[in-house]
Amino acid sequence: MPRRLIAAAALLLLLAGCGSAFFYRQLDWLVPTYVGQYLPLDDSQRKLLDIHVEDLLAWHCSSQLGAYAGWLRTVNADVQAGRLDRDRLQSHTHQMETYWRELARQASPRLADLLARSQDEQIRALLDNLREKEDSFRKDFVDAPIDRVERRLAERTEKRLRRWVGRLTDEQRQTIAGWSRELAREQTQSLAMRQRWREAATRALAQRRDAQRFPHLVEQLLLHPETTWTAAQRQQFEARRVHAQQLLQTLAASLTDRQRRHLAERTGSWAGDFDRLACAPGQPARQVHVPVAGSG
Q: How distant, in Å, are the alpha carbons of 51, 125, 131, 222 from that of 139?
């Protein structure tokens, strides 16, 4: 039940390399497939998930996509005009996080409903899958030689940036490499934060038959994962956010004319897709009440 499990429901298209319009139209079957990789579902749960995804996407396309389009255009305008200073970047980041929190808030009761109906063996499989993800993270980013971790982090960051601005300059790659060297030394703590979140999720899942308390626990895990971390981990996370924003600000200021044109084309294309995908308003998300399921 990692945070990205719900982000995939509608915002994964922002990270996808394929066309946004095509990808968004496939979410009604992509999301159940993705969820099923973590939580094995029976036929009744698959049908329930289909209903929840349909409702969530109806809410999302009627109330969020137009806002995403406007946000992308505003970010691009600030970059093109050279206005992306620290305050503007923080404002854009805050707005993006607001979109995420609203999505998670809408999705959390649906996820709680699905989990409340899950049997013990399904929950064990879910937790086993989370541990496997942690083991994979440990292998790639903690136990691996530090220079390899640095390269992986740099390559991942470069790949994401190339989608938006095209080919990077040597100076930009050096800037990313420096940031990746710092980030590589924080991966042990990142793993510890993942583990603490999973442990909190395990405790919450043990209370999934409590119809009053469980939805709140799920919402807390999705919207406020930092509550599962230590004070030192929260401090480190905030410092990492600041460093990431500094990186983005530095890179934005270094964009070439060609990269700015690429960004304008890319954001314009996605914003146009969001406008076309937006559906008629007045389709509220269905309210979900988690039942007290029988013991499993």
A: 37, 21, 12, 25
Q: What is the DSSP string of 22-73?
A: HHHHTHHHHHHHHHHHHS---HHHHHHHHHHHHHHHHHHHHHTHHHHHHHHH
Do 184 and 150 contact (CB within 8 A), yes or no? yes
Q: Is residue 287 part of a domain?
A: no
Q: Is residue 293 part of a domain?
A: no
Task: Quote the domain boundaries for residue 135.
Answer: 3-277
**CB of 53 closer than 8 Å to CB of 24:** no
pLDDT per position as a tens digit, 39-89? 899 999 989 988 988 888 888 889 998 999 999 999 999 999 999 899 999
pTM for the model stands at 0.83
Residues 6+ apart with CB under 8 A from 34: 5, 8, 12
